[in-house]
Amino acid sequence: MTNRFEHLAAPGVRRLAPYVPGKPPEQLERELGIADSIKLASNENPLGPGPRARAALAAALPGVGMYPDGSGHVLRSRLAEKHGVTIDQVTLGNGSNDVLVLLAETFLTPELEAVYSQYAFAVYPIAVQASGARACVAPANPVEHPMPLGHDPAAIRAAIGPRTRIIYLANPNNPTGTWITGPDLEALIGAVPAEVIVVLDEAYHEYSAEAGVPDATAWCARHPNLVVARTFSKAYGLAGLRVGYALSHPDIADLLNRVRQPFNVSVLGLAAAAAALDDREHVEATLALNRRGLARLGEGLTALGLKVLPSAANFLLCDLQRPAAPINEALLRRGVIVRPVGNYGLPNHLRISTGTAEQNERVLAAMAAALAENA
Ligand SMILES: *Cc1c(COP(=O)(O)O)cnc(C)c1O
Known about the structure:
Elements: H1 11-14, H2 25-32, E1 38-39, H3 51-60, H4 73-83, E2 90-93, H5 96-107, E3 113-117, H6 123-131, E4 134-138, H7 153-159, E5 164-170, H8 182-191, E6 197-201, H9 205-208, E7 226-231, E8 244-247, H10 250-259, H11 267-277, H12 280-303, E9 307-308, E10 315-319, H13 324-333, E11 336-337, E12 339-341, E13 346-353, H14 357-373
Parallel strand pairs: 1-11, 3-4, 3-5, 5-6, 6-7
Antiparallel strand pairs: 2-8, 7-8, 9-10, 10-13, 12-13
Helix pairs in contact: 3-11, 4-11, 5-6, 7-8, 12-14, 13-14
Residues 43, 95-97, 121, 170, 174, 201, 203, 231, 233-234, 239, 244 line the site of pyridoxal-5'-phosphate (PLP).
């Protein structure tokens, strides 16, 4: 279907395909007339928000009649303290997605280029294309690599040219779950020209720290062109509130702040995020649940004859070695929502988030049935 206003849209927007989110359970239940579906499709925390965030939300509710503090002072100072940086190095976003887009809006123009890896997080191509800049996609690691389909630092370096202004890296990456080790990552960042902004997306940091993936926020002091993006959507269980942030050199933060919407984080988001930072217990419980989930799903999927990529996050990318679409349909009919990744160029894979013990068993049972049905 043609869009009658398409020719009026900015050139970058004309060729753009929208981000495809995980299917909401309510929608599946409406479509199939079923109840009791589970969603392991968007890497959310199965425990939801912790008790401190819940209490802070209840306390903040009467305040929603007023605009939020546009500077997000309390949350930014808490984050500065946590990361050992100054408050002027912290930029808040409506989710880290907002920060990723702000960076493109701030630094990219149609004359410039941005580099990211094949199979990198889908928000990067959207942010880059919308800006009109050219995307240079670095080939990913081959399947037989120890980090199959993951970022290849050498290919990323080779993709940098005179017009490159931004590099987007996700560590670990979504949807692959793969990561670049500390020494390789710092060597890559060190090799990037000083006038190229390196955006390092650490959305899964709390999970990946357990796998030895470094905390790159400490590197901002050594690399003024490094921007680290973090989120409250994953381990902190606040995906529905939309709070993320960037840590950077103060001068980069100053530029982002010129483009940022004045009230991009809500009253509730600011309150819950600040409280969530104190809830170490909830994060620990989340990490423990995820460890068990990764182990159980990895073992269960492998026992079904499927291949699973290494993951330092809260999801697994599963190689079905056959078209994933019919299997996905069969899972949906059983009320199990996982994420097809054909839009990433991975038509044989499904991405499955870890859930509660019960949800993990349910997805494994549904997968066994779906495979049998499609044998
Ligand atoms: C989930 C995710 C984000 C976070 O998105 P929010 O906008 O903070 O909810 C960012 N980057 C990657 C790679 C992700 O998977």
